[in-house]
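Lab manual, section 2.4: Encoding a predicted structure.

Procedure: take the sequence of the chain (76 residues), apply the prediction step described in section 2.3, and record the output as structure tokens. A sample record is shown.
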Amino acid sequence: MNIDRKIDTTGMKCPIPVLRASKELRSMKGGEVLEISASDSQAPKDFVDLCESMGHDLLRNDEVEGTYVIVIKKGA
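Recorded output:
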């Protein structure tokens, strides 16, 4: 999987990770892929909701050694 951009939101609490990701996604082209690292336990659900409401594809949403790794493909 090709990652076009990455942001690190570890240490930030809801809603900051989603707001940062939303801002980044707005500057990306359709089909580009964003990887987010987050530590907030609410992040996995927040990113599911973001993708459903904005039409993005959630490619990955899991925990790796205490950090949530979320990968989103921007919708058209």
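Check your result against the sample. Residues 5-71 form a domain with the Translation Initiation Factor IF3 fold (CATH 3.30.110.40).
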